[in-house]
Structure formats: structure tokens, C-alpha cells
Specification:
Elements (H helix, E strand, L loop, with lengths): L7 E6 L6 E5 L1 H17 L6 E7 L4 H16 L3 E7 L9 H13 L4 E10 L2 E8 L7 H30 L10 H7 L3 H65 L1
Parallel strand pairs: 3-4
Antiparallel strand pairs: 1-2, 4-6, 5-6
Length: 254
């Protein structure tokens, strides 16, 4: 039956009586199992433990500031480890640190509960608070919250920049391109090709015209030099004939 359907016979519950099998595509089944395992790892719960340190003789303002940090961590779904550091003689009377931690736990009781009661470990008194009625955020939810906060920060920065520009009267710079250059850039391809052909023909005609002009100049120079040579030869022949005539005249006179 599996061969006729081009499927695989897979035993999915070998310990059952009788064992359970399925007709499935085994390759597709393995691929889906990998996808499910990857999603499970991505969405698994990951709790971060934040740590806040107190001093035994902390003043009221600092106590309120640190209590605000604890409340923020608990609201975000994180556990908080609260530590009181004891110095010198403070180690001999840790009851003051225990009372301080109990006061903190009572004031944030609407956000968290005491997971580990205050106890002394060496020179420190430690208490752990867990978020109350809050599901620990998964990694995907934390990434989503992080991306949202980044987008909000970018929007606030852009708004502040626009406000500063308006107050200073500076207009935002626009990347404007002259209309002629824009038309040349966006001209159709065939028009650009015809323009190149026209320019090529014009350059060829200019080169031919310059060649003809140079040829005419060289021809006129050659004819001028030939005429000058002919004139010189005629003048030389006339001088020779004049000398011969003068010689004959002087001989006859003798």
C-alpha cells in the first residue's frame, strides 16, 4: 500500500499495543519536525535576573530611586536579586538589612513576590523577587519590544531634528536636478542612439573637410614652387642668350 501511494510506512508509537504506524512522506515529516524544534527553541521562556545593590545606611531618596528600578524590572517580567552589602560593624547586626529588604518587598508587592526570603551570605544579605501575575517574556517578544522601542526613538529623534530646523529657519536640502539634465538622463534609448550617430557623422564630415583643405594647401604650395622654378630657368636662359649676343657683337667690332 505504501509503495502504491509513493509514501513511507513509519512507526510513530512503537511502545503501543499494537504499535501505531503512519503512511507519510518521511522526508517532509523530518523537515516539519526540525521547523517545530526551531520554533520551540526560539519561543522558549528565558528569564533574566537583574541585580540591585543597597547599602544598609541608604538615604530615602536613593531608596526610592532603586525601588523604581526594581519595579521597572518586575514590570518587564524579569526576576530581581536584591543585595545589601555590609561593612565593618554592620555585619554584627544584619537585622537592619533584613528589615530593609522586607520593606522593599512590601512596597513592590503589587508587582512581585518574594521567591527567596532574605538571608545572609557572608558579608551580604540577599533576597530574590519574582514578577507577580506576569508571564516571563519569550525571546521573540523581547526582540519585538526592542524593535518597537528603537522605532520610537528614531521617530522622536526625527521629530526633534525637524523642530530644530523649523526654529533655525533652515530649509531641508533637496536633491534637485535641472530639468535639462533630468530629460537627458531619462531620454529613450533610441533617441540617445540617434544622437550618437548624428554626432559621429558630423565628426566624420569635419575630418573629411579638414583633410581636403590640407590637400588643397599642399597642392597650391607645390604649383607655386613649380612656377618659381620655371621662372628661374627662363631668367637664366635669357641671361645666357644675352651673354652670347654680347660676345658676338664684340667680335664683329674687332
Amino acid at each position: 500500500m505504501a509503495r502504491e501511494a509513493s509514501l513511507d510506512l513509519v512507526e510513530v508509537a512503537p511502545n503501543a499495543k499494537p504499535p501505531v504506524t503512519k503512511l507519510i512522506d518521511y522526508g517532509k515529516f523530518k523537515y516539519n519536525e526540525k521547523i517545530k524544534a526551531r520554533e520551540a527553541r526560539r519561543n522558549q521562556s528565558t528569564a533574566e535576573i537583574k541585580e540591585i545593590r543597597f547599602r544598609l545606611k541608604i538615604d530615602e531618596h536613593d531608596f526610592e530611586v532603586k525601588k523604581g528600578h526594581v519595579s521597572r524590572f518586575l514590570s518587564g517580567g524579569d526576576k530581581v536579586k536584591v543585595t545589601i552589602m555590609l561593612r565593618g560593624r554592620e555585619q554584627s547586626r544584619p537585622i537592619g538589612g533584613v528589615d530593609l529588604l522586607r520593606r522593599l518587598a512590601q512596597e513592590v508587592s503589587d508587582l512581585g513576590t518574594v521567591e527567596f526570603a532574605p538571608k545572609q551570605e557572608g558579608r551580604n544579605i540577599i533576597m530574590t523577587l519574582a514578577p507577580k501575575g506576569k508571564k516571563v517574556h519569550t525571546q521573540s517578544e523581547q526582540r519585538r519590544r526592542g524593535s518597537q522601542s528603537r522605532a520610537e526613538r528614531q521617530a522622536r529623534q526625527a521629530a526633534r531634528l525637524a523642530t530644530k530646523q523649523e526654529e533655525s529657519g533652515v530649509q531641508p536640502v533637496k536633491n534637485e536636478v535641472p530639468q535639462e539634465i533630468h530629460e537627458q538622463r531619462h531620454a529613450p534609448a533610441h533617441e540617445s542612439h540617434e544622437t550618437h550617430q548624428h554626432e559621429h557623422r558630423a565628426s566624420q564630415s569635419n575630418s573629411h573637410a579638414s583633410h581636403d583643405a590640407s590637400a588643397r594647401r599642399s597642392g597650391s604650395g607645390h604649383s607655386t614652387s613649380t612656377a618659381m622654378r620655371s621662372s628661374a630657368a627662363a631668367s637664366s636662359a635669357a641671361q645666357n642668350m644675352h651673354r652670347i649676343a654680347s660676345a658676338k657683337t664684340s667680335k664683329n667690332n674687332k
